[in-house]
From TrEMBL:
It catalyses: 4-CDP-2-C-methyl-D-erythritol + ATP = 4-CDP-2-C-methyl-D-erythritol 2-phosphate + ADP + H(+). The keyword Nucleotide-binding applies. NCBIfam families: ispE (TIGR00154). It comes from Aerococcus sanguinicola. Residues 207-283 form the GHMP kinase C-terminal domain. ATP binds at P102, V103, S104, A105, G106, L107, G108, G109, G110, S111, S112. This is 4-diphosphocytidyl-2-C-methyl-D-erythritol kinase. Its EC number is 2.7.1.148. It is an enzyme of class 2 (transferase). Pathway: Isoprenoid biosynthesis; isopentenyl diphosphate biosynthesis via DXP pathway; isopentenyl diphosphate from 1-deoxy-D-xylulose 5-phosphate: step 3/6. Residues 74-152 form the GHMP kinase N-terminal domain. The lineage of its organism: Bacteria, Bacillati, Bacillota, Bacilli, Lactobacillales.
Length: 297
Protein backbone atom coordinates (compact mmCIF):
# COMPACT_ATOMS: atom_id res chain seq x y z
CA UNK A 1 0.00 0.00 0.00
CA UNK A 2 1.35 3.44 -0.96
CA UNK A 3 0.69 6.67 0.94
CA UNK A 4 1.43 10.19 -0.25
CA UNK A 5 1.94 13.00 2.20
CA UNK A 6 4.04 16.14 2.29
CA UNK A 7 5.34 15.44 -1.22
CA UNK A 8 6.89 12.08 -0.27
CA UNK A 9 5.67 8.60 -1.08
CA UNK A 10 5.73 5.86 1.54
CA UNK A 11 5.01 2.17 1.13
CA UNK A 12 3.34 0.29 3.96
CA UNK A 13 4.06 -3.43 3.96
CA UNK A 14 3.04 -6.19 6.35
CA UNK A 15 5.58 -8.79 7.41
CA UNK A 16 3.85 -11.97 8.60
CA UNK A 17 5.27 -14.45 11.09
CA UNK A 18 6.14 -17.90 9.77
CA UNK A 19 5.80 -21.28 11.42
CA UNK A 20 7.31 -24.68 10.69
CA UNK A 21 4.84 -27.52 10.39
CA UNK A 22 7.89 -29.70 9.89
CA UNK A 23 11.63 -29.14 9.93
CA UNK A 24 13.95 -31.90 8.80
CA UNK A 25 17.68 -31.41 8.28
CA UNK A 26 20.01 -33.36 6.01
CA UNK A 27 23.80 -33.15 6.33
CA UNK A 28 25.73 -32.97 3.06
CA UNK A 29 29.12 -34.36 3.92
CA UNK A 30 30.73 -33.31 0.64
CA UNK A 31 30.07 -29.63 1.33
CA UNK A 32 29.91 -29.79 5.13
CA UNK A 33 26.57 -27.99 5.06
CA UNK A 34 23.07 -28.58 6.34
CA UNK A 35 20.12 -28.65 3.96
CA UNK A 36 16.51 -28.23 5.00
CA UNK A 37 13.36 -30.12 4.13
CA UNK A 38 10.46 -28.19 5.66
CA UNK A 39 6.83 -27.26 5.35
CA UNK A 40 6.23 -23.63 6.29
CA UNK A 41 3.15 -21.47 6.67
CA UNK A 42 2.43 -17.82 7.48
CA UNK A 43 0.13 -16.82 10.33
CA UNK A 44 -1.88 -13.70 11.06
CA UNK A 45 0.67 -12.07 13.35
CA UNK A 46 2.55 -9.34 11.53
CA UNK A 47 5.02 -6.51 11.85
CA UNK A 48 4.08 -3.29 10.04
CA UNK A 49 6.76 -1.55 8.00
CA UNK A 50 6.69 1.93 6.53
CA UNK A 51 9.38 2.59 3.91
CA UNK A 52 10.09 5.95 2.30
CA UNK A 53 12.91 7.83 0.64
CA UNK A 54 15.22 10.19 2.47
CA UNK A 55 16.74 13.39 1.10
CA UNK A 56 20.25 12.05 1.82
CA UNK A 57 21.75 8.67 0.94
CA UNK A 58 21.52 7.10 4.38
CA UNK A 59 19.65 3.93 5.31
CA UNK A 60 17.90 4.55 8.62
CA UNK A 61 16.00 1.85 10.51
CA UNK A 62 13.75 2.69 13.44
CA UNK A 63 11.94 0.02 15.42
CA UNK A 64 9.41 -0.04 18.23
CA UNK A 65 11.79 -2.29 20.20
CA UNK A 66 14.70 -0.22 21.50
CA UNK A 67 16.97 -3.26 22.04
CA UNK A 68 16.99 -4.22 18.34
CA UNK A 69 20.00 -3.19 16.23
CA UNK A 70 19.44 -0.54 13.57
CA UNK A 71 22.57 -1.19 11.51
CA UNK A 72 23.76 -4.01 9.23
CA UNK A 73 22.97 -6.54 11.98
CA UNK A 74 19.30 -5.81 11.30
CA UNK A 75 17.91 -7.94 8.44
CA UNK A 76 15.69 -5.08 7.19
CA UNK A 77 18.74 -2.79 6.94
CA UNK A 78 20.64 -5.49 5.09
CA UNK A 79 17.77 -6.01 2.65
CA UNK A 80 17.65 -2.28 1.89
CA UNK A 81 21.40 -2.23 1.36
CA UNK A 82 21.31 -5.27 -0.94
CA UNK A 83 18.51 -4.01 -3.19
CA UNK A 84 20.02 -0.53 -3.37
CA UNK A 85 23.41 -1.95 -4.36
CA UNK A 86 21.84 -4.28 -6.93
CA UNK A 87 19.72 -1.52 -8.48
CA UNK A 88 22.45 1.13 -8.25
CA UNK A 89 19.85 3.65 -7.08
CA UNK A 90 21.72 6.24 -5.03
CA UNK A 91 18.94 7.32 -2.70
CA UNK A 92 18.40 7.05 1.02
CA UNK A 93 15.72 4.99 2.74
CA UNK A 94 13.92 5.28 6.05
CA UNK A 95 12.40 2.09 7.42
CA UNK A 96 10.05 2.22 10.39
CA UNK A 97 9.20 -1.17 11.91
CA UNK A 98 6.30 -1.57 14.30
CA UNK A 99 7.05 -4.92 15.89
CA UNK A 100 4.32 -7.40 16.77
CA UNK A 101 6.22 -10.63 16.10
CA UNK A 102 8.22 -11.79 19.13
CA UNK A 103 12.00 -11.51 18.70
CA UNK A 104 14.35 -14.53 18.57
CA UNK A 105 11.31 -16.79 18.70
CA UNK A 106 11.58 -19.08 15.67
CA UNK A 107 8.83 -17.07 13.96
CA UNK A 108 11.01 -15.47 11.29
CA UNK A 109 10.35 -11.87 12.32
CA UNK A 110 13.67 -10.50 11.09
CA UNK A 111 13.53 -12.52 7.87
CA UNK A 112 9.96 -11.40 7.20
CA UNK A 113 10.89 -7.76 7.81
CA UNK A 114 13.73 -8.12 5.30
CA UNK A 115 11.40 -9.69 2.74
CA UNK A 116 8.90 -6.87 3.27
CA UNK A 117 11.64 -4.32 2.58
CA UNK A 118 12.52 -6.05 -0.71
CA UNK A 119 8.87 -6.05 -1.82
CA UNK A 120 8.37 -2.43 -0.76
CA UNK A 121 11.51 -0.96 -2.33
CA UNK A 122 10.80 -2.85 -5.56
CA UNK A 123 7.51 -0.90 -5.69
CA UNK A 124 8.82 2.39 -4.29
CA UNK A 125 11.56 2.68 -6.90
CA UNK A 126 9.61 1.04 -9.76
CA UNK A 127 12.39 -1.50 -10.18
CA UNK A 128 10.13 -4.15 -11.70
CA UNK A 129 12.37 -6.91 -10.39
CA UNK A 130 11.08 -10.40 -11.12
CA UNK A 131 10.20 -12.88 -8.40
CA UNK A 132 13.42 -14.78 -9.17
CA UNK A 133 15.57 -11.65 -8.83
CA UNK A 134 14.00 -10.81 -5.48
CA UNK A 135 14.42 -14.42 -4.31
CA UNK A 136 18.13 -14.25 -5.17
CA UNK A 137 18.48 -11.15 -2.99
CA UNK A 138 16.45 -12.72 -0.17
CA UNK A 139 18.69 -15.79 -0.14
CA UNK A 140 21.67 -13.53 0.66
CA UNK A 141 19.95 -12.57 3.93
CA UNK A 142 19.16 -15.98 5.41
CA UNK A 143 17.44 -19.30 4.68
CA UNK A 144 13.99 -18.09 5.81
CA UNK A 145 13.88 -14.84 3.80
CA UNK A 146 13.01 -16.46 0.41
CA UNK A 147 10.00 -18.17 1.98
CA UNK A 148 8.96 -14.96 3.76
CA UNK A 149 9.12 -13.12 0.44
CA UNK A 150 6.35 -15.37 -0.95
CA UNK A 151 4.46 -16.57 2.14
CA UNK A 152 1.54 -18.97 1.96
CA UNK A 153 1.92 -22.73 2.42
CA UNK A 154 5.22 -23.89 0.95
CA UNK A 155 7.47 -26.93 0.82
CA UNK A 156 10.93 -25.44 1.38
CA UNK A 157 14.11 -27.40 0.76
CA UNK A 158 17.79 -27.04 -0.01
CA UNK A 159 19.19 -24.03 1.83
CA UNK A 160 15.88 -22.21 1.65
CA UNK A 161 16.20 -21.65 -2.09
CA UNK A 162 13.80 -24.35 -3.34
CA UNK A 163 10.13 -23.49 -2.81
CA UNK A 164 7.05 -25.35 -3.95
CA UNK A 165 3.58 -23.96 -3.18
CA UNK A 166 1.12 -26.31 -1.52
CA UNK A 167 -2.65 -26.45 -1.21
CA UNK A 168 -4.47 -24.88 1.73
CA UNK A 169 -4.28 -26.39 5.20
CA UNK A 170 -7.38 -27.97 6.75
CA UNK A 171 -9.51 -25.49 8.71
CA UNK A 172 -7.86 -24.90 12.08
CA UNK A 173 -6.51 -22.35 14.55
CA UNK A 174 -3.04 -22.08 16.01
CA UNK A 175 -1.86 -21.26 19.50
CA UNK A 176 1.65 -19.80 19.70
CA UNK A 177 3.41 -19.75 23.08
CA UNK A 178 6.65 -17.77 23.40
CA UNK A 179 8.42 -18.21 26.77
CA UNK A 180 10.76 -15.52 28.16
CA UNK A 181 13.93 -16.97 26.66
CA UNK A 182 15.72 -16.71 23.33
CA UNK A 183 17.41 -19.53 21.44
CA UNK A 184 20.45 -18.78 19.26
CA UNK A 185 19.92 -20.42 15.87
CA UNK A 186 23.60 -19.94 14.99
CA UNK A 187 24.68 -21.66 18.23
CA UNK A 188 22.35 -24.62 17.73
CA UNK A 189 23.39 -25.18 14.10
CA UNK A 190 27.08 -24.64 14.85
CA UNK A 191 27.04 -27.37 17.50
CA UNK A 192 24.78 -29.73 15.54
CA UNK A 193 26.10 -33.12 14.40
CA UNK A 194 24.22 -35.79 12.39
CA UNK A 195 24.09 -38.05 15.45
CA UNK A 196 22.06 -35.39 17.29
CA UNK A 197 19.10 -35.89 14.96
CA UNK A 198 16.39 -38.56 15.02
CA UNK A 199 16.14 -40.93 12.05
CA UNK A 200 12.44 -40.28 11.49
CA UNK A 201 11.66 -37.44 9.08
CA UNK A 202 8.45 -35.44 9.49
CA UNK A 203 8.06 -33.61 6.19
CA UNK A 204 6.83 -36.54 4.00
CA UNK A 205 3.90 -37.21 6.37
CA UNK A 206 3.03 -33.50 6.58
CA UNK A 207 3.00 -33.24 2.79
CA UNK A 208 0.73 -36.28 2.57
CA UNK A 209 -1.66 -34.85 5.18
CA UNK A 210 -1.90 -31.56 3.27
CA UNK A 211 -2.51 -33.47 0.04
CA UNK A 212 -5.34 -35.38 1.74
CA UNK A 213 -6.59 -32.17 3.40
CA UNK A 214 -6.80 -34.13 6.65
CA UNK A 215 -6.65 -32.26 9.96
CA UNK A 216 -6.14 -35.44 11.99
CA UNK A 217 -3.30 -36.63 9.77
CA UNK A 218 -1.70 -33.18 9.92
CA UNK A 219 -1.64 -32.92 13.71
CA UNK A 220 -0.16 -36.43 13.90
CA UNK A 221 2.56 -35.58 11.37
CA UNK A 222 3.96 -32.24 12.60
CA UNK A 223 7.44 -32.33 14.07
CA UNK A 224 10.87 -30.76 14.23
CA UNK A 225 14.14 -32.68 14.09
CA UNK A 226 15.85 -30.05 16.25
CA UNK A 227 13.34 -30.32 19.06
CA UNK A 228 15.14 -32.92 21.20
CA UNK A 229 18.45 -31.03 21.01
CA UNK A 230 16.89 -27.65 21.81
CA UNK A 231 14.77 -29.12 24.61
CA UNK A 232 17.89 -30.71 26.10
CA UNK A 233 19.51 -27.25 26.21
CA UNK A 234 16.31 -25.52 27.34
CA UNK A 235 14.27 -27.97 29.48
CA UNK A 236 11.54 -25.38 30.13
CA UNK A 237 10.48 -25.72 26.49
CA UNK A 238 9.73 -29.42 26.99
CA UNK A 239 7.57 -28.47 29.97
CA UNK A 240 5.77 -25.87 27.85
CA UNK A 241 5.04 -28.46 25.16
CA UNK A 242 3.66 -30.87 27.76
CA UNK A 243 1.43 -28.13 29.19
CA UNK A 244 0.03 -27.31 25.76
CA UNK A 245 -0.76 -30.97 25.12
CA UNK A 246 -2.39 -31.30 28.54
CA UNK A 247 -4.58 -28.25 27.84
CA UNK A 248 -5.85 -29.75 24.57
CA UNK A 249 -3.57 -28.43 21.81
CA UNK A 250 -2.82 -30.94 19.05
CA UNK A 251 0.19 -31.39 16.78
CA UNK A 252 2.31 -29.50 19.32
CA UNK A 253 5.80 -28.79 18.04
CA UNK A 254 8.61 -26.27 18.21
CA UNK A 255 8.90 -23.84 15.30
CA UNK A 256 12.31 -23.05 13.85
CA UNK A 257 14.94 -23.41 16.56
CA UNK A 258 12.50 -22.06 19.16
CA UNK A 259 11.72 -20.73 21.54
CA UNK A 260 8.09 -20.59 20.36
CA UNK A 261 6.03 -23.76 20.64
CA UNK A 262 2.93 -24.07 18.46
CA UNK A 263 -0.18 -26.19 18.71
CA UNK A 264 -3.30 -26.71 16.61
CA UNK A 265 -6.95 -26.52 17.57
CA UNK A 266 -9.88 -27.55 15.35
CA UNK A 267 -12.01 -24.60 16.48
CA UNK A 268 -11.61 -21.08 17.82
CA UNK A 269 -13.29 -22.10 21.09
CA UNK A 270 -10.75 -24.89 21.64
CA UNK A 271 -7.90 -22.50 20.79
CA UNK A 272 -9.21 -19.94 23.30
CA UNK A 273 -9.42 -22.65 25.96
CA UNK A 274 -5.76 -23.53 25.41
CA UNK A 275 -4.86 -19.82 25.37
CA UNK A 276 -6.60 -19.13 28.69
CA UNK A 277 -5.04 -22.17 30.34
CA UNK A 278 -1.55 -21.18 29.17
CA UNK A 279 -1.73 -17.54 30.23
CA UNK A 280 -0.87 -18.40 33.82
CA UNK A 281 2.19 -20.30 32.65
CA UNK A 282 3.44 -18.23 29.70
CA UNK A 283 3.04 -14.47 29.24
CA UNK A 284 3.27 -14.27 25.44
CA UNK A 285 0.50 -16.41 23.96
CA UNK A 286 -1.31 -15.79 20.66
CA UNK A 287 -4.31 -17.33 18.92
CA UNK A 288 -4.00 -16.91 15.16
CA UNK A 289 -5.33 -18.33 11.90
CA UNK A 290 -3.06 -19.51 9.12
CA UNK A 291 -2.70 -17.14 6.14
CA UNK A 292 -3.54 -19.58 3.37
CA UNK A 293 -2.65 -17.12 0.60
CA UNK A 294 0.84 -15.84 -0.09
CA UNK A 295 2.03 -12.26 -0.43
CA UNK A 296 0.92 -12.04 -4.05
CA UNK A 297 4.45 -11.67 -5.39
Amino acid sequence: MANKGGGSVSIIEKAAAKINLSQDLIYHEATGSWHYDMVMASVDLSDRLTIQERSDQEIVVRTSRSFLPNDARNHAYRAASLIREASQVKRGLEIIIEKQIPVSAGLGGGSSDAAAVLRAVNKLWDLDYSREELLDLALKIDADAPYCLLGGIQHVSGQGDQLQPLSALPASWLVLAKPPLSVSTDKILHELTPSDLPDQANTPAVLQAIHKHSYQDLVQATGNMLEDLVFWNYPSLAKLKAKMQKFGAQGVTMTGTGSTVIGFAPSLNRAKHVYNALRGFCKEVYVVPVLQQGTGL
